[in-house]
Amino acid sequence: MSHYYNPIHPTVSSQNTSQYSSLGGAVRGAPAQSSFLIPNRRRVPQSIYQPTGKWRNQTGRLAPIHAPVSVDFKGYSRQGMRMMELYARGAFALSQMMEGGDDRVLAHTGLKRITLHIRWPGYENYEWIRSIELNTSSGPITRAEIAAIVAQNFHRYFEKLQYSSTPAMEWHIGPMGISFDKLVLVSISNVFEDAWQADVAVDI
Question: Beta strand 135-136 with 139-140: parallel, antiparallel or unpaired?
């Protein structure tokens, strides 16, 4: 089977893969460190969405946490894909480039929709929650389709906040800080009930 080749991403051997995620408890058993092959690639330290105590009491038992949905070029592992690629390319092109791009990744969950939460460091007061329908006209959503939707949401989020101030200057969004074209989507993780967050890295 042929693989998409990207010179930015050297081949990763099985000994060099990592399942670490900055989303901490959202990914069970994750090691404490990660190893991107690109030296200037850093994970974004996000806070995890937590519903209020009152909401927890009203909803009762928590639903099980589902496994993360990884996003990688074919032939690579745990390195992610640039969100600009996910945003700009069509579904067919992405499915050809992405490892398991055509996989119906959430069909087994029985969920009809999920909510995407973006909690960028220093911008937690700017709440971004969007619903993602998991059933499309062609069937359950694929890995490539959900990755593209997540990238679209980050593009809109960055457009909205590019001129907003933040005390966390290291993660400042905008022309003089971090721009959308520097973002890398590593995976999408279930953090609570139907709430999901993206594990994101930045190429500094």
Answer: antiparallel
What count of other Cβ atoms lies within 10 Å of the Cβ of residue 185?
25
Which tokens hold the place of 162?
Answer: 């590019």
Across 114-152, b (16+ Cβ under 10 Å) vs e yields bebbbbbebbeeeebeeebebeeeeebbbbbbbbbbbbe
Output the six-digit token pair for 69. Answer: 């949905």
Contact 180, 195 (CB under 8 A): no
Residue 51: its pLDDT value, please? 83
Using alpha carbons, select from 178, 176, 107 the residue that is nearest to residue 140: 107
Any idea which residue has 């069937």 for tokens?
Answer: 139
Query: Is the predicted pLDDT of residue 11 greater than 70, yes or no?
Result: no
**DSSP element (H, E) containing 195:** strand 195-203
d(CA 83, CA 171): 17
pLDDT tens string 21-62: 456 444 333 333 468 999 999 999 999 998 876 555 454 445
Q: Taking the model in full, what pTM does it have?
A: 0.82
Q: What pLDDT is recorded for position 62?
A: 59
Reduced to 3 states, what is the DSSP secondary structure of residue 36?
Answer: coil
In three-state secondary structure terms, 168 is: coil
